[in-house]
Amino acid sequence: MPDLGINGLKLFSKSLPKTSYANENLPLSGKTIVVDAGHGGSDSGTLGLMTGIREDVLNLEIATLLESNLKKMGASVVMTRTKEITEALRNERKLSFEERGAIIEGSDADMMLSIHQNFNEDSSKIKGVQILLRDKEYLDIATQFQNTFNNALGTRLNIIKDQYAVLSFGNQPSFIIECGFLSNAEDETNLQTKEYQEKLVDILCDEIQKQLK
Hints:
Layout: H1 6-14, E1 32-37, H2 55-72, E2 76-79, H3 83-88, H4 97-105, E3 111-118, E4 130-133, H5 139-153, E5 160-161, E6 174-181, H6 185-190, H7 194-212
Helix pairs in contact: 1-4, 2-7, 5-7
């Protein structure tokens, strides 16, 4: 288990190599993207209303699919959390925001995407992908992401801007991708299928390519 003190944070970030396919003809060749699988360790995040599925499990599954697709498109990908890293932390605690931040800031990324699942306490009818951001500077990108998902899924969700801690690290465009609502039966069911996860990742990758071209 690495030293996670102030100096150790830099070492921790350096222990996460970028992964990519070396092909200059691929659409994301030369781009670096951080993929953050939200929660993890002792922090499960929210739970599915029907099945009790853990958010951190879904986050990692979707983040891993996203990593694979981005690599095939030529991008260098830095993961803040993987199965191996979770095991290294003995599964007993989550990565702190400072640890995630050290990884993000050490990556010199072109974009950072934090994968999460949503939950609405007031309505089980709300569903779909929702984009969260921190900086007005990247409002146009967030809006395009949101519009594309709304069109693809037949939803009418709006982006949300707030002071999200995980989006405060680095100078790259950073977004939280809430992949669905675990308070909605349809989303909860779909999000546990490989087909639906791949559909969301394909939509997201197409948009990333457009924004980073």
